[in-house]
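in:
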């Protein structure tokens, strides 16, 4: 499933290709993905200039100007979605659900499992409910140790599932939560309100670094990501604990443990993380 780093790499790949370009129209081949697709998407997008390509959490946002109404095209890759450029005459596969038509090529959204989204949001409408509930961006300046410490004083839940709560902070998926906690030396089982400010001073940079490393790992494959076959897999991140149950901890040599938390697998080292 594409996580924040994959979506950010996708955004960075798309930005120079579509910013300033005009969308000529759209082809919609299915009535719905996770939510219904607008039957008039093509008319809404025709003549729109892409003013900016932004990201909020795992949503890609294409700010559009100059068409019938200003607004934003919201794209979510869901579990299995991807975007890639194809030639206008490229054959259409059965999972190719939406095409955005540009002058000489097509930006094609494919999604075998159809959990993705392609939504139009008019500029003068209230914030979309899907976006309005999102917490802080972990790579933004507002996401600090002081903020996280203050936000968790009344939260007795274990820290690991809290880090994955998008109402608090967005985009820290299962892999990155486990890896960040290992880097910070904090047990995933530790109650969030029992973690000191000093330890959050280690955790927040660990989260930023883990995500940045993944983005950097993906950066080298940007061209593959949006230009060729568009395989939207996870990046090869060098994981210290994730998916290494029973393997030796790289710091102490002890065994990496695997447990279940909130229905997800958590990996950690009980000697290095407290
Ligand atoms: Zn260890």
């Amino acid at each position: 499933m594409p996580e924040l780093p994959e979506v950010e790499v996708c955004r960075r790949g798309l930005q120079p290709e579509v910013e300033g370009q005009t969308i000529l129209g759209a082809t919609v081949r299915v009535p719905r993905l996770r939510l219904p697709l607008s039957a008039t998407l093509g008319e809404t997008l025709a003549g729109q200039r892409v003013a900016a390509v932004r990201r909020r959490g795992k949503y890609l946002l294409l700010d559009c100007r100059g068409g019938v109404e200003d607004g934003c095209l919201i794209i979510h890759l869901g579990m299995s979605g991807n975007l890639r450029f194809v030639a206008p005459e490229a054959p259409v596969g059965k999972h190719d659900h939406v095409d955005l038509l540009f002058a000489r090529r097509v930006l094609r959204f494919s999604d075998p499992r159809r959990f993705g989204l392609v939504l139009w949001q008019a500029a003068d409408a209230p914030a979309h409910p899907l976006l309005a509930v999102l917490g802080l961006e972990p790579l933004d300046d507002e996401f600090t140790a002081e903020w996280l410490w203050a936000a968790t004083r009344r939260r007795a839940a274990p820290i690991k599932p809290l880090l994955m709560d998008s109402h608090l902070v967005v985009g820290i998926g299962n892999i990155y939560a486990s890896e960040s906690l290992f880097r910070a030396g904090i047990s995933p089982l530790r109650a969030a309100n029992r973690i000191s400010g000093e330890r959050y001073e280690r955790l927040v940079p660990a989260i930023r670094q883990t995500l940045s490393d993944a983005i950097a790992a993906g950066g080298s494959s940007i061209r593959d990501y949006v230009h060729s076959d568009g395989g939207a897999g996870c990046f090869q991140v060098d994981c210290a604990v994730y998916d290494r149950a029973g393997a030796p901890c790289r710091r102490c040599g002890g065994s990496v443990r695997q447990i279940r938390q909130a229905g997800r697998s958590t990996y950690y080292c009980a000697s290095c993380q407290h």
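note: Confidence is low (pLDDT under 50) at residues 221-225, 227-234.
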